[in-house]
Write a structure and sequence with these properties.
By secondary structure, the protein is of the alpha+beta class. Helices cover about 30% and strands about 20% of the residues.
C-alpha cells in the first residue's frame, strides 16, 4: 500500500478490496429458476425469463445475493459490471457472471462499482480482457485482482457515493423512461405493418390457401410470392478503406462508428467480408431472429454472416420487406424456420430466406407503408440519440466526481444539458 500524490488517497491492490465468492446451486429438474444478465456501459442488471432445472441441465449456476459485485466476464471490458440489490434475491448467475464481496471495512461497494465506470476502471477491465473474438473478450479475474487503484478513506468514499447516487439516480431514471419509450415505439412499428397487412373495413381477406404460413390474414388484392423471385443475393468484393457496416437488432443498418457497440452480434473474425451498398436489404443471419434486418444507410463492408439482397425487378420497396422480416422475427417465425446448433445461434441463410412466402402489395401501397414506418423510425432514432447522450453524460459525471481530489466539477442536470 502506498500514499498517492492526491492527498488522502492510497494506492492498493484490488484484491485487498474485494474477494470472489461462489454459492453453487444444486439444480432440481422440476423447479423454476431465474437468471440475471448485465448490460454494458454501466447499465445494470436485467432479469431473464424463468427457466426450469431440466432446461439448465448440467450448466453450472450460482446464487446471487444483494451486495454482490458482479462482472460479465465476456463484456466486462465494455463496463458490464453491476451491484446486486434486493430485487436480485433468489436469482442465479452462470459462470459468466462471477460474484465478489467488498470488504466492508475497506471500501464502499458502490464506490468500487463507480470506479469501474471511470476511464481508469474501464482501462483495467480492457487490459485484463485479452482476446480478439469480436466483442467477446474474457476477463482474467486473477490478473485483475492484482491490479492497483487509488482510493480515499472509507468516509470519503461514502461521501462521494452519496453525491453520485443522487445525480446518477436521476440520469438512470431518465434512461429507464427513454428505454421504455423506445420499446413502445418499436412495438408501434410492428403494429403499423400488421395494421397494413390486416384486412381493413371494405377489404375482404385473402383465401387462407393464399396466405403465407406466418400470416393470419391479408387484404384480398394482395398477392404472395417466394423471396427467391423477388430478391437475389449479392456477394460483392469489399473496397479497401471502407468502414464496417453493422445490422442492429432494432433494424438499423449503418456504419459501426455511427453507434455505440451494443445491440448486435459480431463475427469472430473479419475474414471473407463483402461489400454492402446504401439501400441494400441486409439480413444478419445469426441475429435475424432478434430483428437484425434492415436497409443499409451506408456503403461499406460487412461480415459474411450477413445476407445482402437486391430486388430482381422494379417496384419492390426494400424498407417494406425489411419490416416484414422484422415482424416475422417479433412473431417468432424466424426461430421456427432457422436451423440452430444452440439456443442463440439460429442462422437465416439465403437458402432459407429464398423459400419464405412474402405478401406483395402494389408498389404504391409498399411506398405508403414504408413512408409511415420511416416516420416512426425517425422518432425511434431521436429517442436512441437521447439514450446515448444520457449514457455519455452519466459517464462524464462519474468521471468528474471521482477525478482529482474527488471534488465534483460538473453540476449540470441532464435536463440542463
Amino acid at each position: 500500500m502506498s500514499r498517492s500524490a492526491r492527498g488522502g488517497w492510497e494506492e492498493v491492490r484490488l484484491s485487498s478490496l474485494i474477494r470472489e465468492v461462489k454459492r453453487p446451486v444444486s439444480v432440481v429438474s422440476d423447479e423454476e429458476y431465474r437468471e440475471i444478465g448485465i448490460r454494458s456501459h454501466g447499465r445494470g442488471i436485467f432479469h431473464k425469463e424463468p427457466t426450469s432445472g431440466s432446461e439448465l441441465g448440467d450448466k453450472a449456476v450460482f446464487w446471487i445475493e444483494p451486495g454482490d459485485l458482479i462482472f460479465n466476464i465476456v463484456f466486462a471490458w465494455e463496463g458490464a459490471v453491476a451491484l446486486a440489490g434486493p430485487s436480485e434475491t433468489g436469482y442465479i448467475g452462470s459462470h459468466r457472471f462471477p460474484t465478489f464481496r467488498v470488504h466492508a471495512e475497506r471500501a464502499d461497494p458502490r464506490f468500487v462499482l463507480y470506479f469501474f465506470q471511470t476511464e481508469a476502471g474501464v482501462f483495467l477491465l480492457c487490459e485484463n480482457s485479452p482476446g480478439g473474438a469480436g466483442r467477446n473478450r474474457t476477463l482474467d479475474r486473477a490478473r485483475l485482482l492484482k491490479e492497483k487503484l487509488r482510493v480515499p478513506d472509507l468516509a470519503t468514499q461514502q461521501k462521494l457515493v452519496r453525491i453520485l447516487d443522487a445525480r446518477v439516480g436521476a440520469i438512470d431514471a431518465a434512461l429507464a423512461r427513454a428505454e421504455r419509450l423506445r420499446a413502445l415505439l418499436l412495438e408501434r412499428q410492428y403494429s403499423l405493418i400488421a395494421a397494413s397487412i390486416d384486412t381493413s373495413p371494405g377489404r375482404a381477406p385473402s383465401p387462407s390457401s393464399n396466405l403465407p404460413e406466418w400470416l393470419d390474414t391479408m387484404p384480398e388484392p394482395w398477392t404472395t410470392c417466394r423471396a427467391r423471385f423477388l430478391f437475389r443475393q449479392l456477394q460483392l468484393s469489399p473496397v479497401e478503406g471502407e468502414g464496417v457496416v453493422t445490422a442492429f437488432r432494432d433494424g438499423q443498418v449503418t456504419l459501426r462508428e455511427n453507434r455505440r457497440a451494443d445491440g448486435f452480434m459480431l463475427a469472430v473474425q473479419e475474414l471473407g467480408y463483402q461489400r454492402v451498398r446504401e439501400g441494400d436489404l441486409v439480413v444478419h443471419s445469426m441475429d435475424a431472429f432478434a430483428g437484425a434486418s434492415g436497409v443499409s444507410e451506408s456503403t461499406g463492408k460487412c461480415s459474411p454472416e450477413y445476407v445482402v439482397l437486391e430486388p430482381t425487378r422494379e417496384g419492390l420497396n426494400n424498407h417494406y420487406y425489411a419490416a416484414c422480416l422484422r415482424w416475422m422475427a417479433a412473431e417468432g417465425y424466424i426461430l421456427v424456420i432457422c436451423p440452430s446448433v444452440r439456443e442463440r445461434a439460429p442462422r437465416l441463410r439465403f437458402s432459407t430466406v429464398k423459400d419464405i412466402v412474402l405478401p406483395v402489395p402494389s408498389s404504391h401501397e409498399q411506398q405508403q407503408i414504408a413512408d409511415e414506418l420511416q416516420r416512426a423510425r425517425r422518432t425511434v432514432e431521436r429517442v436512441r440519440a437521447l439514450e446515448e447522450f444520457l449514457v455519455e453524460y452519466r459517464r462524464a459525471l462519474i468521471e468528474d466526481v471521482l477525478a482529482g481530489d474527488g471534488a465534483p466539477r460538473s453540476t449540470e442536470s441532464p435536463e440542463a444539458a
